[in-house]
Amino acid sequence: MTTSDSAVRTAQPIAAPAKAPTTGTAAPVRRKGGWTRGFWLRQLHTWHWVSSALSLMALFLFVATGFTLNHAGDILAKPKVVDGSGQLAPAFIALLAKGPGDGAKVPVPIAVRDELARQSRMSIPADTAAEWSSDEVYLAMPRPGGDAWISVERGDGAISWETTDQGWIAYFNDLHKGRNAGWVWHWFIDGFVISALIFVGTGFALLWMHGRHRPSTWPLTGLGLLIPFILALFFIH
Fold first, then answer.
1. Which of 126, 143, 187, 189 sees the fewest Cβ atoms within 10 Å?
2. Could you read off the pLDDT of 193-230 as tens digits, one per residue?
3. How far apart are CA 153 and CA 161, in angstroms?
4. What is the pTM of this model?
């Protein structure tokens, strides 16, 4: 071996050992100034499907009842009316005699309320405010899809009542409007609105991110906005 060959071999760099392959999920890579497009797409898809799952059944309810409300005149319903009468015992009449005067709106005594519920076979909420006058106590109990009332004569304790049931379509229509549905349904509608807004917002963001690859995205979106605007402007007076 010559001296020149030895010098050439010595000058050659020694290769670094190969790195072992890593396992597991790599952490999201950040660009300068923000997360990557892939990160935002994953987040938007996650929030979009979660909010759609939460809103699905309520959205179906409101869409279906929107149709029935729009065709309320075409959907015939025969209300079911049930009335009755009864009589309070003297002890209950005495409790009513001790009650407030004209114009008061307070619940009847618990014992009287339980007796009225027993005779009429109605469920009377504890916070039902009765309308008091000098000769009558009147309890109005409207509910989704129907109505109910009880009237009691303060002098002789005569009771009369009536319930009206408009049917299931009227029931769901009233839920759509939040009519006489109580505070629990009131809060449910608020929660549904928040979920639906997230669904709509993430859907719009996904349209924005995919729109460049789908030329028909924004014309169709604009058409969805333009059609109700034109109808309202020219055909609603």
1. 126
2. 999 999 999 999 988 888 888 888 889 989 999 999 99
3. 12
4. 0.74
